[in-house]
Amino acid sequence: MKYHLVTLGCQMNQSDSERVKRVLEGMGAQWTDDENDANIIGILACSVRQKAIDKVYSKIANWNKRKASQNLITFISGCILPADKKKFLKLFDIVFAMRELPQFPQMMSQYGITTPVGLEKDNLNPKEEMSFFWQVKPKYNSSFEAFIPIQNGCDKFCSFCAVPYTRGREVSRPSQEIIDEVKSLVEKGYKSITLLGQNVNSYGLDKKGNELSFSQLLEEIGKIGNESSQTFWVYFTSPHPRDMGRDVVEVIAKYDCLAKQIHLPIQSGDDKVLIKMNRKHSVKKYRETVSVIRELIPQATLFTDIIVGFSGETEEQFQNTRKALKEFEYNMAYIAMYSKRPGAASYSWPDDVDLKVKKERLVLLSEDLAEVAGSYNRNMLGNVYSVLVRDTDRKGGYLSSQTEGKITVRFASEDQSLIGQIVNVKITSASNFSVEGELVEVSELVE
């Protein structure tokens, strides 16, 4: 019995896929890279983006055609809007919410696949279901990088986003489970660990007084780093500017293992647009948070998310976003043209910024980003950085790596045993979005 899983969307879906794989392999299924060779085939969907949903329909159409000539069981989970779920019930054999994953073996047994793995957990509320979901041990996709979900759902209800309708309200994972998973990964030699949630810095707010806050959770993880002889970096994504307090930045500054890289989505540099987006923060509030980061962690890199062409966005409002990008000097910005998301509040609003204008704004912002990111990268020249080697580079004879601040660094080497290791590289050239360097032996480092 072989299985194949298609994962769409964000890092949370990537993390969820590791638990889905664990359950399937616990049932005796074996992974295959070729979906045409699979007896069980599934997809983790992303209703947040229409293109991802279109891909689901394309996939299931092909899979259902195959059923005429072979035994095949199909399933779907992930971020699914109620309207999409109704349609998928007619197309897939099994449709389930991710929090119901522990019950997946029972669902499969209806198709003649029996397993002792299933858990009898009937009539659970969503929070209880998430608790059982998190107890499923993941089958990590990497031997040196790992994702740890710490929270599910979102209470912010940004008008452009469907996540509260696909994943529900915020539920925090028990902190001891998170801490234990971090310890286990560190002991196994993992070098990069990312805490995941739709709004990670609201962690614990749904259990106020009975659970750690986000800064307290980071403090406990920081202590693990202090007690370990291993070098590792802990990241988190994504925080919300409204909940990003000074206490979080102070803890990051305090512990070496807490990576000096902050992903802080601004979405727009105009207050009126932010209000329409229901972001619940102003540019002034955002500026204050960035000032704290620059004060306490001056070496930190700053990443963000920006939407151009949101419903009703004027040229003046777009120019305010350009000003913000230059002011905050981002190292990376994930810039997207606004498109209607079924299920989001703004879906019924006019999408009144012409596509040509959206594309022009995307290009202008990308050029602005290249300028500020390139300036930072050029300042890296001549300096030595510790980097995590992640893979071979598309440039032959080179390896690709990242600094603690997630700046991409390539260097000449064909020694693939370095992949998954932290090494030192001296920067010799720089472009707008990456740098190049040469491997430095430990004995060459100047004290």
Question: Keywords for this structure?
Answer:
447 residues; alpha/beta; Rossmann fold; pyruvate-formate lyase- activating enzyme; OB fold (Dihydrolipoamide Acetyltransferase, E2P); five-stranded mixed beta barrel; 13 helices; 34% helix; 21% strand; globular
Give a written overview of the molecule.
- Residues 378-441 form the TRAM domain.
- Pfam families: Radical_SAM (PF04055), TRAM (PF01938), UPF0004 (PF00919).
- Residues 140-375 form the Radical SAM core domain.
- Helix 12 runs parallel beside helix 13.
- The longest helix has 24 residues, at 355-378.
- This protein is α/β, with parallel strands linked by helices and 447 residues long.
- The protein folds into three domains: 2-123, Methylthiotransferase, N-terminal domain (Rossmann fold, 3-Layer(aba) Sandwich), CATH 3.40.50.12160; 128-378, tm_1862 like domain (pyruvate-formate lyase- activating enzyme), CATH 3.80.30; 384-444, Nucleic acid-binding proteins (OB fold (Dihydrolipoamide Acetyltransferase, E2P), Beta Barrel), CATH 2.40.50.
- The N and C termini lie far apart (56 Å).
- The chain contains 13 helices and 18 strands.
- It has a five-stranded parallel β-sheet, with helices on both faces. Strands 14-15-16-18-17 form a five-stranded mixed β-barrel. Strands 6-9-10 form a three-stranded parallel β-sheet, sandwiched between helices.
